[in-house]
Design goal:
Number of helices: 16
Strand order of the largest sheet: 2-1-3-4
Radius of gyration: 20 Å
CATH topology of one domain: Rossmann fold
CATH architecture of one domain: 3-Layer(aba) Sandwich
CATH class of one domain: Alpha Beta
Order of helices and strands: HEHEHHEHHEHHHHEHEHHHEHEH
Largest sheet: 4 strands, parallel
Shape: globular
Length: 367
């Protein structure tokens, strides 16, 4: 994988303007349709060994997602960005725009920051659809005046179709993983690399991996597991999972299935498109109003894949995910599905203790 600096320099040398986006579900199609390259700033842990700059601005008990994100934006790598887009999610991420701006003020950096609020209440019981619609129109206005670009409905619909193609390819690859035709480690690597590439390159990488799998013969996995969490298991943990003959037949990872599972029908305007996008998004703890659908959706995933166990990769200090763990474990226990909960901190994601726990869990599953 190319370094982030190399990737961003390649884009800038081609005259592209890069907008760093977080959390995970920004209006990517809109940015793309206006000639910008949206990069979702997620899974940045491989880019930094230390987070010294971030720790000057964030408490050390903030999650690794936030700490790596601030480290990136305030580093030399972050200077490649032409803008930042942020919307509210957890309590930590919703306050990052102001924290990052303070960091910019200290260093003398200047970068346009676009903010959008997503109402975290049931859409059917509030005026949130109208509010989202107005905010999308405001965002278009701000982008036009900041970057000197013009919105085109035709280009937006073309971009929406392109992102639909990308997400459909992700779902097709996920099915190949469940069939044992692609390793989950290889799948996760490509999905993660795609977060730092234009959608055209994403489609090409996904098509290449899908084509390579066509000549392979699948297996009928006996030891089926689901993985869940905000971040996927690290490469070392995935290697441990697969080495112990556990086949990942489905995932509920925020940066994987939760991100690519749903795309609205092409709308006649972007406001309707994103109202639909956020209202019917795949359930995620970062979208609080979707919480009522989350456990049922996960139960359906387990039934449909015939999974015999669930491995939950807990991002330490991610309260929104952790709040659900006790109830989720209770529901799965009633289903007869054993659960392994891994509490992963910024400094110990590949620790021997986590590897040993996966090995012990595999014995339970095989037994």
């Amino acid at each position: 994988m190319k370094s982030l600096d190399t990737r961003f320099n390649d884009l800038k040398n081609n005259g592209k303007k890069i907008v760093g986006c977080f959390p995970l579900y920004p209006p990517l199609e809109l940015f793309h349709s206006m000639g910008l390259v949206p990069i979702t700033l997620w899974e940045l842990k491989n880019a930094f060994n230390r987070v010294e700059n971030s720790d000057r601005h964030l408490q050390t008990y903030a999650c690794s997602v936030a700490r790596h994100l601030v480290e990136f934006v305030l580093s030399q790598s972050g200077s490649a960005l032409n803008g930042l887009f942020m919307y509210n999610a957890c309590d930590t991420l919703r306050n990052l725009p102001e924290i990052i701006q303070c960091g910019f003020n200290e260093s003398g950096q200047s970068l346009p920051i676009f903010k959008m609020h997503i109402p975290m209440v049931p859409h059917a019981q509030s005026a949130s659809p109208g509010y989202i619609s107005r905010r999308i129109h405001d965002l278009i206005y701000d982008l036009e005046h900041t970057f000197g670009v013009t919105f085109s409905l035709e280009k937006f619909q073309e971009s929406a179709a392109r992102y639909r193609d990308m997400r459909d390819l992700c779902k097709a690859l996920e099915a190949r993983v469940a069939q044992g035709m692609i390793g989950y480690g290889n799948f996760s690597r490509v999905i993660m690399e795609n977060y730092f590439a234009p959608v055209e390159d994403q489609i090409q990488m996904l098509q290449t991996l899908l084509g390579e799998s066509e000549s392979l013969t699948g297996i009928n996995p006996n030891s089926r597991v689901i993985v869940s969490g905000i971040l996927p298991p690290s490469a070392a943990l995935i290697e441990t999972i697969e080495r112990n003959r556990l086949t990942v037949v489905g995932n509920d990872i925020a940066s994987q299935r939760r991100s690519y599972f749903y795309t609205p029908a092409v709308a006649n305007n972007p406001a309707d498109y994103y109202t639909d996008f956020y209202q019917y998004h795949f359930p995620c703890t970062t979208l609080l109003y979707s919480a009522d659908r989350r456990v049922g959706t996960l139960k359906d995933l387990i039934r449909n894949t015939q999974a015999g166990g669930l491995i939950f990769v807990g991002e330490k200090f991610c309260e929104y995910e952790y709040f659900e763990i006790p109830y989720l474990e209770k529901v799965l226990r009633e289903m007869g599905v054993p659960t392994l909960f891994l509490d992963v901190a910024i400094e110990d994601e590949d620790s021997a203790a986590l590897i040993t726990r996966i090995e012990a869990f595999s014995e339970i599953i095989h037994g």
